[in-house]
Amino acid sequence: MSTVSTSPRRGRRVAAFALGALAVVAVASGCSSSEDSSSDATADQTAVVDTLSSYYSAFGADDGPKACGYLDPELAAKLATTGPDGTCESAVNAGHKNAGAEALTKLSELKYDATKVVVEGDTAKLSTKDVAELNGKATDSTAQIVLTRDGDNWKIVDLG
User: Fold this and answer.
1) N or C: lower Cβ tally within 10 Å for the chain?
2) pTM of this prediction?
3) CB atoms < 10 A from the CB of 28, how many?
4) Which residues, if any, are the signal sequence (predicted)?
């Protein structure tokens, strides 16, 4: 693989990209780490929330290979272009390093309401606004977190 050099400015973009739009939600949230996977949620809705939680857990643990495993191959390849050595794993690790302890803690504490996940066929969407509101944060964001079914699993296509 080719080596990609990163400037300090690019390093900040790596962190922002790796954190995705949910980082905005996390900055001011101080919620418990439990997920709100209401008993009314379908298995697919719960699996989507599990995927998001697992991604941010791996990101927070500085486990680039595991975090990248939750990403759709196209998103992982796009993220790889921002990594110091051109890999998704190095991009996640750089994002982790640049995020800071407070942001990482808040990401690990995000709550999700699985019943708000909209599943249509092999695509699932969750509004960042719904996540923000559940975590006590007001936002005008209209961004969507998008996942796609990959066999029995869900892969993150867009973090909003």
Assistant:
1) N
2) 0.77
3) 12
4) 1-28
Q: Which residue has the tokens 């975590």?
A: 135
Contact (CB, 8 A) for 111 and 26: no
Tokens of 45: 């809705």
Separation in Å, CA 17 to CA 33, 147, 151: 23, 16, 26
CA distances from 26 to 72, 128, 140 (A): 23, 11, 15
CB count, 10 Å around CB of 32?
A: 8
Strand partners, 37: none
For residue 10, give Cα distances in angstroms to 15, 26, 132. Answer: 9, 22, 27
pLDDT of residue 87: 94
Distance CA 61, CA 77 (A): 21
Instruction: Take residue 157 and report the two structure tokens written for it.
Output: 């296509």
pLDDT in tens, 84-141: 999 999 998 888 888 888 888 877 788 889 999 999 999 999 988 888 788 788 777 7
